[in-house]
Amino acid sequence: MSEEVKKPTRKTKAAKKAEYESIKEQVEQLEKQLLELKTKAKELDADLNPAPKKDAECPSQCLTCADCRVKACFNNEAEKYPSFCLTTAVNKKLLQKAKDIYLTNDTDKKLALTAAYVEGNFYGKYTRVQETIEFIKQYGAKKVGVATCVGLLNEASVFCKLLKKHGIEYYTVGCKIGAIEKSEIGIPKENTLTKGEKFESMCNPIMQAKVLNAQKTDLNIVIGLCVGHDALFMRYAKAPSTILVVKDRVTGHNPVVPLYTAGGIYSKI
Q1: CB-CB neighbours of 19 under 10 Å
Q2: Domain 141-260 is found in CATH 3.40.50.2300
Q3: Which of 63, 112, 156, 182 could serve as a FRET partner for 122 with CA atoms 20 to 30 Å apart?
Q4: More confident call, 139 vs 22
Q5: Measured CA distances, 252 to 16, 32, 176 (Å)
Q6: DSSP codes of every residue in 129-162
Q7: What secondary structure letter does DSSP report for 167?
Q8: 56 confidence band (pLDDT: 50, 70, 90)
């Protein structure tokens, strides 16, 4: 007699419910373990890769481009951007607005393209003087304004001779134009070079700008205006302005010297 085939026993509703509860419990335990592992991994990641402080946590100074040693933005190497990179956090709308200005504003587009031409062809080959003359030519300026410190009139004179040699018209204005005594605008004598012992003309960058505006210059060159006076000049000059010389009597007009020697003689700055 052949053996009878046993039919599989059908699970009761109670058995199915018990199995469901058991599986549910296992899932909950696994989820709990997974959450614990994720938490632990996050803690380890925070220790290994500390996040930059948020604005609310660093009201005085947060990490910016000055703290970057990667410069991945040069070639858009996204995988190398630091966590605080300003490029990755840039306001897309503002970025597009800036790009639109380059494309739609004739003056700004011309300045950008001319600057790119000089950089692309003469970077590391020409001195700043040569680059400036080449920029003037490529920009097509018909008349160039020169706003100079009177203490650098000799240097300005040499530069203007070079402009003349290259067929460039110029108009130069010294910073003491008008010879207004410093006290007339409220500068106290203790903040003057002679401490009030004799007449001392104030630097007058606003007047320099107004004179060059009246001359209808197409481009202005700044030579050695004092810190802050250059800012005033640029605020009131109508034509675009570029700086040729930054005055620094102590370093022979080479203001980066203290930056190069910040770990040595200038460590107490």
Answers
A1: 11
A2: yes
A3: 156
A4: 139
A5: 91, 69, 22
A6: HHHHHHHHHHHT-SEEEEEE-GGGHHHHHHHHHH
A7: T
A8: very low
